[in-house]
Amino acid sequence: MAEKNKDTHRYLVNMVNKIASPNFSMNPAELNKFIPENEEFIIKRVYWIDNPINEKKSGQHAHTDEDEIFIVIKGKASIAIDDDGEGVRKIELNENNIVWVPRYVWHGFDELSDDCIILALTSTNYDPERKGYIEDYKTFKESLPK
Questions:
Q1: Residue ranges of the Sugar 3,4-ketoisomerase QdtA cupin domain (predicted)?
Q2: pLDDT tens for residues 96-117?
Q3: Which residues contact 120 (CB under 8 A, 6 or more apart)?
Q4: What pTM value is reported for the model?
């Protein structure tokens, strides 16, 4: 099972094992090892981020109704993340890092390497109206569950 960050944040950052074989490497992400106990996570959507251009970052935001798991498949990036409204932390991510981001956690990627591929597993289907998104940091801080 994943360990909580030493500062006891709701998000988790861990590493997927790499298993070498004579002809390839296998990287098994057994999801129950990377999410907190008593959390139910049903995957409804899978997507990936690749071919970063221009600013090489995603928009920062939080979700009111969506939990996510991100796995760095290739390359490196950093994630800006905040789960308590006390300020955004920057965490460097490398190949095989896995990040659990539950709802009401501010997050976004930047500094994506040219070869970066990030796989995303989410608990909701895509909503083009983005009803469950908070895209303003001040609004995020005000909306944190008490």
A1: 40-142
A2: 999 999 999 999 999 999 999 9
A3: 45, 46, 47, 48, 49, 68, 69, 70
A4: 0.91
